[in-house]
Amino acid sequence: MNRKNVLIIDDEVEVTSFFTYFLKAKNCHVTVAHSGKEVELLLADNASAGYQLALIDLKLPDANGLELLTAIKNRFPACEAMVMTGYSTIKSAVTAMQLGARDYLEKPFDDLDSLETAIFSVLEKSTERYDRLAQTARHYGMVYAPASPMVKVLSLAEKLAKKAINILIEGETGTGKELMARFLHGTSTRSSFPFVGINCGAIPETLLESELFGHEKGAFTGAVKARKGFFELAHNGTLFLDEIGEAPLSIQVKLLRVIETGEFMRIGGEQTLKSNIRFISATNRSLEQEVEKNGYRADLLYRLEGVKLSIPPLRERPDDIPFIVQDYLEKKFGGTRRVDAEAMALLTAYHWPGNVRQLLNVMNQTAAIHDCPVLLPEHLPANIVESSPRSLANTNGPLAVHRFVEQEAIRFVESVVDRIGSVDEIHFEQLMERIRRLETEIGRHIILKGLKETDGNRQLLSEKLGISKRTLRYILNEKE
């Protein structure tokens, strides 16, 4: 069973200690916060992989539990939440559920069997729901981190997919608007019918009308036979209008009528045809601004924008980059190639004006030019390395240490695996538990080394390592 990340928020040390021991015994990784301030620091930590569950006390001395619930759901959309409450705050617990909490736990926690059932029921559903959504999104080419803003976007998209409503997708070039459209179609009730896409900005105005409406034989010079347009081809399915903002005003007028009535005629035709279509449109610019400048019809925008989905640019979700890169390498090379820690940090720090499309192009070019199992910073394009913060390119900085440790660890693991006999001699879970203990022991030795270097100044050491004094004490296995 995979380890679950659980966040416990309560100002009572007895409560957090109880849940820490209780959940660690169930193979969970537990993070504790005793105040709203500590929660703020955790939510601001970009290195966090996110949480599957947060247990939140509604009454904290410096924070409102309902506000913390909202902040956690915004930062980690896939995280389920349960609130901890006494009898006096049951009404607040109901409000919390209306804000997105899955359930509430009533203090005191006397019945451990019921407590375990309640918590792990939510955890398992959370994991199943996230895994299912992530797997479906990956099928359509969208990969993201557990705490990515894309979780919220895709969760909404999955709900909207089954609704009989037109959708407008906004996003910069390269963010994956067509992939989102295919996701919407594939998870809708129309998935067994055609998905037809057309780029309104890539086809001349004289041809765009023919592509959409079709034409009869002899309708114009070169029309040597009748031809169905996309309105007919997409019948009962989805018509994806990419870069709809580029559609000329003359086409906008005719498109509006089709959306309103479902009726159209082929060019040169006399028979009215009907088509049952779900319209999904995409644009890389604000159509509202175009309407204000009289460059776009407001009535058409209202018809297309039944609901609007906005895909955030890659620079606003850097945590997704390692997942996208790893997915690319697995699909392309079967997992036989990887990117080292420092090179990945450079990729993550880059601003990616071309978004996911640019990232994949860079990976494709880099992997093709450098045929080696590990891609290093020197293999990346110069513009990515040079535009990153100087600290990332500093060969004597923290990342160089991380890279050294990673390389040494890989060599050690490879040598150990080579010397292991038959897998029949391995009890895998026991082995992994010993390795987890070893991680803690390594952390303890690093802290002991740091205490020597700082003459025992724990505050200074905590600042240098970027951890709290509480975490330092925890690693040293010291009691509160």
Automatic annotation (TrEMBL):
A GO term for molecular function: sequence-specific DNA binding
Any one GO BP annotation for this protein: regulation of DNA-templated transcription
Keyword Amino-acid biosynthesis: no
Domain Response regulatory: 5-122
Record's keyword terms, sorted: ATP-binding, DNA-binding, Nucleotide-binding, Phosphoprotein, Transcription, Transcription regulation
Residue ranges occupied by any Sigma-54 factor interaction domain in the UniProt entry: 143-368
Record's keyword annotation contains Nucleotide-binding: yes
Pfam families assigned to the protein according to its UniProt record, in alphabetical order: AAA_lid_14, HTH_8, Response_reg, Sigma54_activat
4-aspartylphosphate: residues carrying this PTM: D57
Name by which UniProt lists this protein: Two-component response regulator
